[in-house]
Amino acid sequence: MSLDDACVSELHVELVVHDEGIEVRDLDSHNGIYHAGSRILRAVVPRGASLHLGESTICVDVVEASSTAPRPPRDSFHALHGKSEVMRELFSHLERLAPTELSVFIEGPTGSGKELIARALHDESPRAKGEFVVLDCAALPPALAESVLFGHAKGAFTGASEARIGVFERAHGGTVFLDEIGDLPLDLQPKLLRVLEQREVTRVGEQQSRPVSVRILSATWRNLRRMVNQGFFRGDLYFRLAQTCVVLPSLAHRRDDIELLVSEFLRCLPPEAACARAISGEALDELRARDFPGNVRELKNVIERAAYMCNGALIRPQDLAFDRLLARAPRNDGAETEIPDFKEAKRTAVDDFERSYLQRLIAKTNGNIAMAAGLAAIERHHLRSLLKRHGLHNPK
Ligand SMILES: Nc1ncnc2c1ncn2[C@@H]1O[C@H](COP(=O)(O)OP(=O)(O)OP(=O)(O)O)[C@@H](O)[C@H]1O
Q: What is the pTM for the complete model shown?
């Protein structure tokens, strides 16, 4: 606290709170401290006491620590928004978790915000100045997986013309987010466990290990506990990764978030873009009735598409049906039909085709990606990214 009083020294008094009252210490001030008519150098005064310093009088008291008062619920945590009870609880949980070093395992269906949580935990942690490195374990090329994780020495294998660091060394001082951890090959699991326990990595082709300081966050849409029971995932690694768990429900289980999410998505559209900035109550009702298998990602796509494609500044229910426009029977009642922009209409038709093809493919193969990729004659990683784009990569 500073006083605008020429008779008060630069560092005049020190106050320390005790159970019995407030201890007042004179810091060798020029004009001294007076209480109840007497000069004091060091004394304990009761709460609410008046002190005279120079020409000023101050009242010293203790404000109860605000941490004891319940905090108002928050509707956001970094880029995450939500006002449903479950999300508000999650946000205050994340607030407590962020500054710790605990490994956090994030469970939730596709598009529900797992990566956003990981990024927010990193940004709110003391490691925020370090790197946030994302590793998609489902996209690891089998032959190079170990080198991607731990790095390799020059000449460690054919094609290793240069030494390379892996994700752990890259994230030294920061955070590694292991996405789709359920897809980590079994043979790599003990090696990962060793890194997490010993906090050091050994590059492929080297003997000596290097210390690394990283916080580990991981996520999957799979049921990892079931995978542990079935022997597809090591129990010891699971417990090391899941020092604490965060569970994200699907959007269908937190419909109270939809309105807030929609207004956030509209608010974040580029300011110079000519598009809708608001949504009608009826359109919102229609959204609240939908299932959204692709969760928040799907809602975001729907809103962005409707905002750009609708005529006017307000999204109405008919604008949400745009993706079904081409599939409708042609109207013959003479009413004027709107002709969408050719490129956009073509993209929508391709989207519709892809989605229905993938749905049939996944139903036919019972969600088996390898079999589905074989049947469709496309690469597995391509199929995975198509499924992800359509919010279908969690078919069970
Ligand atoms: N609570 C939220 N608030 C705002 N945007 C969100 C929220 N949850 C998700 N999103 C948005 O939805 C999209 C998908 O989020 P994210 O990538 O974090 O999901 P995910 O669960 O990691 O998906 P996947 O399992 O498919 O990798 C992103 O565009 C993200 O910004």
A: 0.69
